[in-house]
Amino acid sequence: MNILQRRRSWSTAPVASLIGIILLLLVVVPMGTLLVAAFTDTPPRPGAPLGNLTLDNLTAIFTGASRSAFINTLIIGVCASLLALAIGSSLAWIAARTDVPLRGVVQVAAIMPMFTSSLVGALAWSMLGSPRQGYLNVILRSIGLPDFINVYSLPGIIFVAGIYYSPYAFLLVNAALTLMNPELEEAAYVHGARFRNVIGSVTLRLVMPALLGAGTLIAVMITENFPIPQILGSPYGIQTMPTQIYRLMANAPSRPNEASAAGAGLLVLTGVMVYLQRRLLAGREFTTVSGKGFTPRRQKLGAWRWPAFLLAAVYAVLAVGLPTWALLQGAFRRSSFTRDAKVLFDPASFTTRTFNEVLRSAHLRDVLLNSLMIGAGTAIIGGGVYLLIAYYVHRIKGPGHKVFPYIAMWPAAVPALVIGLGYLWTWSRVTAIYGTLAILIIGFIGHLLPQGFQSVSSSLTQVHSELEESAQVSGASRLRAAWEILVPLIRTGVVSTMLLLFILSMREISVAIFLFTSKTEPLSIATYNTWETGRIAPVAAMSLIYVAVLVVLTLISRRWFGMKTERST
Amino acid sequence: MRIEDLTVAFKGKTAVDKLSLSINPGEMLVLLGPSGCGKTTTMRSIVGLQRPDAGTITIGDRVVFDAASRVDVPVNARKVGMVFQSYAIWPHMTVAQNIAFPLRMQRRPKAEIARRVDAALETVGLSGLGGRGASLLSGGQMQRVAVARSFVMEPAMLLLDEPLSNLDAKLREKLRFELRELQQRLHMTSVYVTHDQSEALALADRIAIMKDGVIEQLGSPAELYTRPRTTFVADFLGVDNIFPSEVLGPAGPGGCQVRLDGTDIRLRVERDASNGATNVCIRPEEIDLLPDGQTDRANAVAVTILSTSYLGDRVRYHAEAGPGLRLTIVKSVGAPVPAPGQAATAVLPADKVQLLQS
User: Fold this and answer.
1) Residues 6+ apart with CB under 8 A from B143
2) What are the start-end ranges of the H helices in A233-287?
3) Distance from A492 to chain B by nearest Cα, in Å?
4) How many angstroms separate the CA of residue B304 from the nearest CA in chain A?
5) Which of A118, A410, A72, A84 is nearest to A215 (CA)?
6) How much is the average pLDDT of A470-481?
7) Which of the residues A109, A228, B216, B231 could staple to A122 if both were Cys, CB 3.0 to 4.6 A apart?
8) Where does residue A555 rank: exposed (0-12), middle (13-18), buried (19+ CB within 10 A)?
9) Mean pLDDT of B258-271
10) Neighbours of B85 (CB within 10 A)
11) At B12, is the pLDDT very low, low, confident or very high (cuts 50, 70, 90)?
12) Nearest CB to B153: which of A1, A3, A475?
């Protein structure tokens, strides 16, 4: 009787409040400030009196330049998503369900653009496909064809966005096709169906949830994409909502309230899409995805084997091969003027001078260091924050554990550019944070919250709670059980999530565009700013270095930490 | 161990309702019931993974939970061993490290830990496997490691949460007897949770059948099997012949007359009718099957055989005694086998028919 213990009074309240404050700062306040700005007539400043309430900003979205930006956003969003879906799902079917030669090569080709950044893709295609001077047009002229390619157009933007985002369709559809029970198709054949019947009324229907999921996911990403329309459209008068927001902020005189209203409009647009995605997918989880390893049924292609492979090869050339070649041309050729196709292949016309200059510049060292610091900060601090929230939500289950995951998912519906804008309004008066790397790290932690939280959560929930409970039954305290049992079991998953955060924060430009200063400029922004100066060689050199850094980081992560970049968005 | 007035509610829904129960030293008590009946919640309350809303739990002479005086001994200080449904074997440790964990938490000297781990491994028949990684074990081996880990710290009592439900049928039966033997050899006071009635019958000293958070009937396996008190208990223990019926009145000393609903079949039952019975039941093997035309006997019912199926040592018959009234009868092989379609007489002995409360 003497070891009677009082009820342990350790309360979950302090942890709950801490998480509440974090989510308030990361999600609720920035979005709230943005909404306030959308309905007032002075730029929001924390502490400053609110301006007058007005609806002018909202009406401005639907008039003039903003109205055409809205329409362009819709056109690009729909067409590029369909293109990405068509490319991605065809390649997925070829890779997963046919006897295509060199299947491994097809699989790698289909996801290659994910290792780079859409900014670099857009830059490279602007070199390839600009009217007259684009390398492809130069080549067309020299072989006597009309130089019809113009990437500075709606079709051009749709094309680049489509090929850049098709890997997401590939991954989701590929997973659905691989996990589908082949007996479902075999049963259709047994009952008299032909190939086209089976594809149409069994296979396609079963992967429909994956197709819809991929379609809406891609539509959201393309709608909020900033670098592609900014580089291929903005200089030629084709605006989308993200580029319009940037223009409203960057051009003098800046119109922050209109930008906020446009941001709020874009937020509503992506919010509706994410909502539709959830609605469409709810109740549509067909039991094709059982997690069981099936040996997929492979369609014999016969004479179509090599043409199918060729399709993947053409995709790889368009998405990776040509852009890389263009960057090499741009970075190493003496003159940025291309007289004819001959100079593109003449060894005498190349030099490493510009490239060396860029490589050795103090500027590159500074921005690379900034990028690495931002990446490391986001990975370590963000990873820690996400882990704290996930442990609270899934294990402690104190007050708020139902609401927190919901709030943590909000940023998934918020365009990165709009997040940047919200953080700008919220933090611009806090000099200890604003203008330092800290604001960029906070911005990325907020932007990556849904992904990071989900990824850490899935590591955590994969560990059966009975594993910790049995440690407690065996005499370990809650903390001891977490340390001895949980930590070793989730370490790999959490480390790979952190690496993913590191890479994503280096790849992303839109969050940072409103938050950087000349001292905290990261590599992505530096590449973009070099492009704004208009000189091709330094841009190409920066782009090559930027891509090289991303690829090296990705390869290291995959090789040594088993990270799955595919799971990311 | 003693539980008094244990009450647990989840979001206003009562999972365990004023449950009281005591277990004698060395006894194996089985909590049996369908999912959602509160058996796992009761177990988790005993071990301390679930905080009850009211009641008292005493293990030995130590109060580990008492809502009134706000006593709640944390799970890691209750000294109760537990085998989890998933076994919860830590995959990043070896077998020996798994078993040593509770002793390590007690800060035992290394030499003692090694000695006791070896002894535990031998007890469960896994000698020599201590160095193996725990993720490489088969289901049966994992179960044994979980058992070894739960008793190595010499707990005041042992809790087992459906420890055999993840195994295939053959292994389940084998380990069931091993577990029973081990428990009796170590004289370990145990609570065993399951929804499998044959497992409960084979393992228990006493069974508590639970429904909706309360104990429906508590008794030895033989008691429950031969004298189910309620329809739920009879149904859960797999009695096939349960018929709604009406008590007509007393008949003879300590007996009564019942009529099966929707028929004019009247049966004499050697039970007192005062308990408000609404159903009667009889086990399939206790019905006598006679040739046609012997309906002058007591409790004889004219039936038509619908189907027969061969079970190895026995034959199971389905017979119709009237519209909607079907009997299941099991007889040993050797007796003459009536063919489907034939008429026969079924006799339901008055001392074998049970009266059931709803």
Assistant:
1) B83, B87, B163, B164, B166, B167, B175
2) 241-250, 256-281
3) 12
4) 41
5) A84
6) 91
7) A228
8) exposed
9) 86
10) 17
11) confident
12) A475
> Which pLDDT value is given to residue B28?
95
Instruction: Sheet with B256-260: list strands edge to edge.
Output: B266-269, B256-260, B241-250, B279-282, B354-356
pLDDT in tens, B131-165: 998 888 888 899 999 999 999 989 999 999 999 88
Partner B contacted by A13 (CB < 8 A): no
A319-347: b (≥16 Cβ within 10 Å) or e: bbebbbbbbbbbbbbeebebeeeebbeee
CA dihedral of A150, A151, A154, A158, whole degrees rounded to 10? 140
Phi, psi of B125 (to 5 degrees): 75, 35
Find, among A231, A106, A90, the residue nearest to A166 by Cα: A90
Say which residues have a Cβ less than 8 Å from residue A550's Cβ, sequence separation at least 6: A115, A116, A117, A503, A506, A507
CB A374 within 8 A of CB A441: yes
The helix/strand/coil state of B200 is helix
- Residues of A whose CB is below 8 A from B78: 473
Whether pLDDT at B5 is above 60: yes
- pLDDT of A2 > 70? The answer is no
Q: Please answer whether residues B52 and B6 qualify as being in contact, where contact means their C-beta atoms are separated by less than 8 angstroms.
A: yes
**Amino acid, single-letter form, for residue B74:** P
What is the rounded CA–CA span in Å between residue A366 and residue A359? 12
CA distance A461 to A470: 16
CB–CB of B105 and A6 under 8 A? no
pLDDT tens track for B153-210 = 899 999 999 998 888 888 888 889 989 999 999 999 999 999 999 899 999 999 999 9
Question: Which one of B75, B107, B154 would you mutate to disrupt binding with A, by most A Cβ within 10 Å of its Cβ?
Answer: B75
Residue pair A367/A359 in contact (Cβ under 8 Å)? The answer is: no
Q: Which residues pair with B259 in a beta bridge?
A: B246, B266
Contacts of B86 in chain A (CB under 8 A): 464, 466
Q: Which amino acid is at A326?
A: A
For the entire predicted model, the pTM comes to 0.81
- A5 in B contact zone (CB under 8 Å): yes
Do β-strands B288-291 and B343-347 pair in parallel, antiparallel, or remain unpaired?
Answer: antiparallel
DSSP characters over A141-205? HHTT-------SSHHHHHHHHHHHHHHHHHHHHHHHHHHS-HHHHHHHHHTT--HHHHIIIIIHH
Mutation to test the A interface, candidates B76, B97, B152, most A Cβ within 10 Å: B76
The mean pLDDT value of chain B amounts to 89
Query: A473 vs B80: CB contact, 8 Å cut-off?
Result: yes
Name the residue with higher pLDDT: A29 or A342: A29
Residues of A in contact with B82 (CB under 8 A): 470, 473
Domain architecture of chain B: domains with CATH: 2-226 (3.40.50.300), 239-356 (2.40.50.140)
- Residue B349 at interface with chain A, using a CB cutoff of 8 Å: no
The burial class, CB within 10 Å (0-12 / 13-18 / 19+), for A559 is: exposed
Rounded to whole angstroms, how far apart are CA atoms B186 and B26? 8
Show the tokens assigned to A23: 């989510």
Residue A48 has pLDDT above 70, yes or no: no
Encoded amino acid at A348, one letter: A
CA B196, B201, B203, B209 torsion-angle sign: positive
Cis peptide leading into residue A253 (ω within 30°): yes
A479 touches chain B (CB under 8 A): no
